[in-house]
Amino acid sequence: MRGPGWQLCKQLITRRVHSSSYALKEVELTSVRYPDLKRGPFGRLTDSDVTHFRRLLGAERVITEDLDGYNTDWLRSVRGASQLVLRPRSTEEVSAVLRHCHERRLAVCPQGGNTGLVGGSVPVFDEVVLSTSLMNKIIDLDTNSGALVCEAGCVLETADAYLAERGFMMPLDLGAKGSCQIGGNVSTNAGGLRLVRYGGLHGTVLGLEAVLANGDVLDCMSTMKKDNTGYDLKHLLIGSEGTLGVVTKVAISCPRRPACVNLVMLAVRSFEDVLSTYQFAQSQLGEILSSIEFMDGASQECVVNNLNMSHPLPGHPFYMVVETSGSRDTHDEEKLSLFMEEAMQRELVTDGVLATDVGQIKSLWQFRERIAEALLGDGYCFKYDISLPLNAFYEVLENLLYSDGNIHLNMTTRDFDAAVLSKIEPSLYEWTAQHGGSISAEHGLGLKKRNFIGYSKSPSAVALMQQLKTMLDPHGILNPHKVLPDN
Amino acid sequence: MRGPGWQLCKQLITRRVHSSSYALKEVELTSVRYPDLKRGPFGRLTDSDVTHFRRLLGAERVITEDLDGYNTDWLRSVRGASQLVLRPRSTEEVSAVLRHCHERRLAVCPQGGNTGLVGGSVPVFDEVVLSTSLMNKIIDLDTNSGALVCEAGCVLETADAYLAERGFMMPLDLGAKGSCQIGGNVSTNAGGLRLVRYGGLHGTVLGLEAVLANGDVLDCMSTMKKDNTGYDLKHLLIGSEGTLGVVTKVAISCPRRPACVNLVMLAVRSFEDVLSTYQFAQSQLGEILSSIEFMDGASQECVVNNLNMSHPLPGHPFYMVVETSGSRDTHDEEKLSLFMEEAMQRELVTDGVLATDVGQIKSLWQFRERIAEALLGDGYCFKYDISLPLNAFYEVLENLLYSDGNIHLNMTTRDFDAAVLSKIEPSLYEWTAQHGGSISAEHGLGLKKRNFIGYSKSPSAVALMQQLKTMLDPHGILNPHKVLPDN
């Protein structure tokens, strides 16, 4: 555990205008939906470019048809118009591709599992999609230290399964684990469900390799926990969302898989009780706490209705999921049952269900992990992911829950609605900034939030980011219209 | 705990040419000891500069006499020839000072507690010393999250005492805690004794403020654990050893002080047994392990002789210190005694002593923390701090311990001896690089190791570091001759 962390930032309120499931239709083009966006002064793809790429990669890894899956994001909220997808298999190929794009001023959208939630992982206009999916080899695991070295395209769940067989685990876990790739996780600084215990990627990534915009390979590989030799460049790439370079390899510190894991789902009466239970869990469970999340009742209704699942504790206003991981089961179970008992006695918690075997634990986690998927069943989902100091949560409690609250973190409508959007933004961001929070706790900025960066970062910091971008990508070809604000 | 980390990198072998204590004499000037070093094309300090600084700070915070303590490092291994020390009290003052130095091309050496071990914290020639000692206010502690905000000049031990009264602790602990400052810790990415549990500063620093070479204030303050809005610039400053900016404020995530702490010192027969005990402790103690260190017998003899201390387990070839921190004392004690028992049964450990109260724990820690101080009593100390993959440790065991080993991590001589130095460097670094290790695990590069950066970092990475330096400090005034290699 890296301190008394908190991550009460997700699924705070769910507002659903429609509750019935909704059939998929084609997503509006980003260029149409956001008419203010202007394509940059990039080169236009020619037949000779395509021929060049075919020579580099072979024809079967240069894709020019059926690109909808590459152009559309998972949320079905944005759609680019790329005509070309490239699927390199090695760092050298990525380097050769980018060298050509740099010379020809062709814009590029690096893409991993395409599970991002802010429109960062798909093209905006006609950027060439550079997919890392075929770079999915596990290169090495040091079973003494737990240092895993793998290519960027490894799927998180696949890597975790590989580690499980060897007594280790990935230090991060996300709902999207079945599709998301390590390279994308690192590029977006994905947080996930176990940050409270294992810390974020700035702490767990030991080294990486990336290809810069001009095709140069930046080698920052290391498997050492401790290496204090010069500026730690890997951090520039972590969370830069593919705008400074394409991550091609990652070395990451993997903890030993705990001997025993337990999970409780709790029903809670009020948001105030959620916060108290959170604090109480921190003090009682301390070093064995591996995850603590909460969800509101509307999110659970949505999961039940849209995914046809049966809820173990139906009809409560709030829920919490508390997971422990430790080295001795008797100790952990004793701590956890003591915590449950006392939380009940103090009337913080009204009901609860405990899971101790792997199957039960997995099925309870679904009620948290599949919220995003369930919300999509409603149609369009406006998605917000803010973090706030705990005391600000208390302060605004009334405003959030008991007034007719104009602040919603997940709001679904049948279709995208610009009028609804303008009611949420930028007022939600202003309010978050006033309370010292972050407008994007873990989703990143991507396309959708780039112009709101000023609510969470100072002008001096944004100016330096622009300088870095210009230095590393002078033609601005890497993932244009993402992260940094217009102008 | 952030995974099965290891930090077997310290005090591996101690070779002492002389064992008697040694009286201090004046340290040779760095410019004399290292005749190849050339002063850069910097401005020369004039009376009008001094007058300007007096106007900015007031006469009593502009020091021009008795500068020996500012010019000489703690190891008494390098000595600069600065004529001027400035002691600003605020970020604004640091900014005004640097703006003037930038205009006048005056080189600057930022200085915290001056406890660095690689000659990074003192001037090489006549750099102006910019001391952060008077910027020592604690600004805020969020008792919900443990986020501490303080000025760069706060002494680590003072900050920890402040936190202790409020149920928290600093996430790092060093032997130098009584003098070292947070700003210096962050600038050098100090590791310390509890990295295995709480992770490094790239994980625990939440935000910072720094003044760049031209006087611009870079505001990267945040107290959020999760904030994914743009490039995470604070990491550029962490570990840049004052060459990219002067850190003026820090926000850091502080864990709750554990309810119970226990410590054992173990006597171990061989280095192989040290490694086995290390692995065994990881598996048995898991999440309650808060520190694990080892020392060789020579280091302990040196502590006993030079500091007049009485050793609890005299005469063993190796020692380990294993600390646990947890939330329930009965659980922790049970785990620890089980670990001790089994380690004895397996004959990994030949003797041991347990400390459970604060006083005992503190006094046992001295045998680890005061090694550096004790070594100084011998005269000159050649200090190396490498990290290696565990399997490399095994491989080179014979070479390290049972041959007449030309590889020494701490070697003391009566005086500095260039012939001895040339026997160690660069062969130690070559060997470390061959085994995939780092030539500086936590001490940094400073003056002494800057030209060896290539053994741990790729040419592409070093080239990008140079680009960053040029971008952020075009005249190269910040801590010249440190971190980056000559040319």
TrEMBL record, chains A, B:
Keywords attached to this entry: FAD, Flavoprotein, Oxidoreductase, Peroxisome
Entry superkingdom: Eukaryota
EC annotation from Swiss-Prot or TrEMBL: 1.1.99.39
Reactions performed catalytically: (R)-malate + A = oxaloacetate + AH2
Cofactor(s) of this protein: FAD
Signal peptide: none
Major localisation: other
PROSITE patterns for the chain: FAD_PCMH (PS51387)
Enzyme category, top tier: oxidoreductase
Domain called FAD-binding PCMH-type: residue spans: 78-257
GO CC, alphabetical: mitochondrion; peroxisome
InterPro entries, per the entry: FAD-bd_oxidored_4_C, FAD-bd_PCMH, FAD-bd_PCMH-like_sf, FAD-bd_PCMH_sub1, FAD-bd_PCMH_sub2, FAD-linked_Oxase-like_C, FAD-oxidored/transferase_4, Oxid_FAD_bind_N
Subcellular location: Peroxisome
One GO MF term: (R)-2-hydroxyglutarate dehydrogenase activity
Stated role: Catalyzes the oxidation of D-2-hydroxyglutarate (D-2-HG) to alpha-ketoglutarate. Also catalyzes the oxidation of other D-2-hydroxyacids, such as D-malate (D-MAL) and D-lactate (D-LAC). Exhibits high activities towards D-2-HG and D-MAL but a very weak activity towards D-LAC.
Family: Belongs to the FAD-binding oxidoreductase/transferase type 4 family.
Protein name per its UniProtKB record: D-2-hydroxyglutarate dehydrogenase, mitochondrial
Organism of derivation: Amphibalanus amphitrite (Striped barnacle)
Lineage: Eukaryota, Metazoa, Ecdysozoa, Arthropoda, Crustacea
